Amino acid sequence: MENQTVRQVARISVGGNSVRVVLSNAFGEKPLTIGAGSVAIAGKGGEIDQATLKPLTWGGKSSVVVPPGTPILSDPVALSAEALSEISVSIFLPKKTALSSVHWDGVQTAYISGPGNFTSDAAFKADTTLKSRLFLSDIWVDAAPESQAVVFFGDSITDGNCSTPDANNRWPDHIAKRLQEANRKVAVVNEAFSGNRVLTDGMGVNALARFDSDILSHPKVATVVLMMGINDIGWPGENAITPDDKQPTAQDIITGYKQLIDRAHAHGIRIVGATLTPFAETFKGLPTEGYYTAEKEKIRVAVNQWIRTGGGFDGVIDFDKVMEDPAKPGYLRDDYDCGDNLHPNDAGYKAMADAVDLDVLLGPAR
User: Fold this and answer.
1) DSSP secondary structure letters along 117-133
2) φ, ψ for residue 38 (rounded to 5)?
3) What is the pLDDT of residue 93?
4) pLDDT at 366 over 90
C-alpha cells in the first residue's frame, strides 16, 4: 500500500466519553508511517457520523512513525460513545507500506481507498475491501473507574471464523451484549486469532509466547477465558496442516495450560478454562482431513477431562457439552455446524454465549 487510506470498524463493549486508539507494527520489519488518522461513530458501510469525527494525534502531532515491533497509543480523543457502539478508525499511509501486522480473519470489512488522504471524509469510496484487521489493535475507552475487563484468549472459534461478517456474531460479542444487559461494568477484549496454538507457532505466535503482550498489556484485566488447544491436537500428522510437527500428548497441552494459569495468578488475574468442542470428521474430503483422527479424539477427551476436574482453573465453561450432538458423541451438532465439522455457525456461537454463567467470569454481581 502507498498513498492510501484504510477505514475500519470495531464494536466497543463499554461506553465512555473519550477513546484512545492503539495501532500496531508488531510484525513490521520497517518503521510504519501514519500520515494522519481519525476516529468517529461508524455509519453504514464505510460511512461515518460526520458530527462525531475527530482527528487522531500522537504527542499532539497529527502524524507518527511507529518503530518495528511496537504498538503506538494515540492521545485521548473526546468522543462520547455508548456501550456496544461501532467505532470507525481511519488511517492514512503516505509511504509504501507492507501489510505485516494483520489480523487476517477479522470477520469485519476493512475499506481501502485509492490514492489520497480520506481520513476526514464522511463517505468513503473503497477501491478494495478485505475481511482483515490492518494495523488496528485496540480501542480504549475511559470507562467508569470500577470497570473491569475480561480477555477471551483463543483460536478461530473465539475469533468467530465462519460467522457472518460485519454482524458481531462471535461468541464474545454476544457475551458483551449480555454483560451490558445485566448492567455489569465489564469490557470484553477478544485476543483470539485463527490457527492459534498453545505450544507452537503457526498462523501467528503461540499462546505461551504472547501471553504478556496480549493479556497483561490491557488495563484492569480481572479474568482470562482460555479456549485453545484443538489446533495443537489437529495440526500435526499425516494429511494434516503441519505434517512434520510432533503430535503433542494431552499432558503436553495440560502443562501449557498450567503455565498460563500460574502466570495469570502471579498477576492477580483469574483464569477460566473452556472445554474443547467436538471435531469429528473435521475437513473430511479435503487434503487436510487428517486434522481429525480417532487417536486425536482421545487427546481431546483427556484434555477436556483435566479442564473439568483438574482443579487448575478458577472456573470452567463446558462448551463441549453445549455443542456436542447428543446422538453422535464427538460430533458437532448439525444445527450449530458451519459446514466443516469444526467451526460453529451464527446459531452455534450464540448458543455458546448463552450457555455461559456470567458469574463464572467475574463472580456474583455486587
Assistant:
1) --TT-SS---SEEESSE
2) -150, 165
3) 98
4) no
